[in-house]
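Supplementary material to the annual report.
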Amino acid sequence: MSVLKEFTKGLWKELPPFRLVLGLCPTLAVTNSAENGLGMGAAVVFVLTLSNMIISMVRHIIPAKVRIACFIVIAASLVVAVELLMQAYAYPLYQRLGIFVPLIVVNCIILGRAEAFAAKNGVAASAADGLGMGLGFTMSLTFLGSIREILGNGTWFGMAVMPEGYEPLRIMVQAPGAFICLGLILAGMNMLAFRQARRKGEQAEALARQQQGCGACGGCAACGAGARDAQAQ
Amino acid sequence: MPDVRNAVLLAMSAPPYWHCGRTVRRQSLWMAVALAPAALCAVWNWGLPALRVMALCVAACVAAEALCQKVMGRDISVDDGTAAVSGLLLAFMLPAAAPWWLVCLGAAASICLGKMAFGGLGANPVNTTLTGWAILFVSFPLLMDANAMQLDTTFVDPLLRLKYFGAAAAEEIPFEDLLLGRQINGLGAGQAGALFLGGSFLAARGFVRWHIALGFFLGVAGLATAFALADPATNASPFFHLATGSVLLGGFFLITDPANAPSRPLPMFLFGLVGGALVMLIRKYGVYADGAPFAILLANLLAPQLDLLRPKPFGGR
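Predicted assembly:
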């Protein structure tokens, strides 16, 4: 039950790029096509699940003072593994993603989940958390990549989907398009959350949360403070 | 009852009680009046296609603003005319042969992303018109290139001529041609003489701040003079630079937008100066022939920093 809950929270309630607003570097940089987003997501699922499991296994051995360094070493080893695997089996994708594959090491989702979850919970729960967060990340990147590819190139996973004579909106596959698209998606998510809250009759609570400024984004749920508040309630 | 009948009726309202009579609506109206000569010149030079683009762009901007306000659940305030002026300014920067969907897309992008997404009038960090223009320009470089769109004309593009054929070829174009708008450019941005008339009227009446416009033109002319003195063979005269591209449109109508300009005299002047200098740097060293729109967008981002230049309060240290 609890494992299932840890798994599903990454899919919507704490969706990494759009709810926690974590891991924005790959989110903005590699999503100029749906395929790149999916490939990046798959690499992150692999690293995140395994790093969460390993960190959770060794969490009692790691001294608290050097834990960040230990997390990085574990994540870096996994990223090297994923890099070699990609070079062997998906070389074109590896070339397109370029520097952003090695940069998974310093992705805030990896360190964030290690620090906030894997270092405090059991192996099964950590694996579920990593898998859920990774899949949520993959979904988000593929979604963003799809929007940008369809509008900016007229294709989806390389197939032409727009009608003949469609003039592609080139800005969408360039850097500014990533920011515009992400901003609009975040606005849409906020609107959706606000609508849901209002439908449930929690308007007052939602308003209070919005006025506080912090907490509306759910970002602090990722660290200890948010979890403590949740337990207190 | 008799007490009530005898009591003096006092009308209560909140201060201030004294108004200068200036409203957003009147401001937009005078902006439109100042843009009218250039619009007439544009129709004179480019014919009815120019009128078509201007009318469509204004209508699309007003419709986009009304739609946004409807969706956001706000009072519809398109009658203040700011959306219409933004639309007219955007149309001025498009080629007269722009297809209808390009105009509508630019108008929607200007208003939705450049204005309403940030909260409406006065809340946008960069110029409304230029946001839409930049999205179009980056997305469709070919369709936004007036030189490639206007094939059946005898006019030439002065800035491209300067960039690829040198200063001598650029100086061959008579200055009257530039002033009368006989140059390839955005449909209204090239009407240099008419824009100068309208713009100076606005600045003189105080509808736009003359500090910003003066700073902008000094920035362009100063750097252009320095370049021309250093190497007259490759650099055109400052007058050429002032009358081409969207320098006059930008300096009088775009960079002076009070929503994203500083509000004190010295910062305003510096703001214009930075914008003008950036125009010349982009023209000389950048890949784009005309740097004015991008220079203004960059200067807009500097406005909050320039606003920090404040006088020392009495007794302050």
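The two ends of chain A are 20 Å apart (CA to CA).
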